[in-house]
């Protein structure tokens, strides 16, 4: 099972804001070229986004469905990757001081991906996770590729600033 974590120097609220935007999925998920919500309200339970994978001139469209959502704390997804099958992707957010510890856990659920899963495949998933978490950190810490800081509305609790 591929589990990786990263301390993101942003609040859990700022990280959740990126995860909760289905249009931004392709900005941090490695292997996706674009994404758009197609069913329900992302990231509500059962909501889905369509994402596109490109490999040279070839393009595949697949869906990711929300299987569990605890707003601001946990998001579990089932990603469909035809012809490989499906994978479970679980993202947990933990407050860590003023920052956010993100724990990413992914493993195949159904189809050929599960049958092909081995230590070599696991190493590739770890590399993918490293890049995904780095992209997520960049979006949350710097506001994305433009480098514009995002306002962090979760830094105040009950109207009072906390150090």
Structure overview:
The chain has 163 residues and is of the alpha+beta class. It is built from four helices and nine strands; from the N terminus they run E-H-H-E-E-E-E-E-E-H-H-E-E. It has helices spanning 12-19, 25-28, 112-116, 119-142, and strands at 2-8, 34-39, 48-55, 58-70, 74-81, 85-96, 99-110, 156-157, 160-161. The strands form two sheets. Strands 1-7-6-5-4-3-2 form a seven-stranded antiparallel β-sheet. A two-stranded antiparallel ribbon has the order 8-9. It is globular. Residues 144-163 have low confidence and may be disordered.
Summarize the structure.
The chain is α+β, with helices and mostly antiparallel strands.
Please describe the structure with a list of short key phrases separated by commas or semicolons.
about 160 residues; alpha+beta; two-stranded antiparallel sheet; about 45% strand; globular
């Amino acid at each position: 099972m591929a589990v990786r974590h990263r301390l993101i120097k942003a609040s859990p609220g700022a990280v959740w804001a990126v995860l909760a935007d289905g249009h931004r999925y392709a900005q941090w998920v490695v292997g996706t070229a674009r994404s758009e919500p197609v069913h329900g309200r992302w990231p509500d339970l059962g909501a889905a986004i369509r994402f596109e994978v490109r490999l040279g001139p070839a393009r595949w469209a697949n869906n990711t469905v929300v299987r569990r959502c605890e707003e601001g704390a946990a998001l579990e997804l089932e990603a469909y990757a035809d012809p490989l099958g499906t994978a479970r992707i679980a993202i947990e957010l933990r407050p860590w001081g003023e920052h956010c510890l993100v724990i990413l856990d992914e493993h195949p659920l159904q189809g050929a991906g599960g049958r092909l899963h081995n230590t070599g495949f696991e190493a590739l998933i770890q590399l993918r996770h490293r890049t995904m978490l780095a992209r997520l950190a960049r979006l949350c810490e710097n506001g994305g590729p433009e480098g514009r800081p995002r306002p962090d509305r979760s830094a105040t609790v009950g109207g009072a600033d906390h150090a």
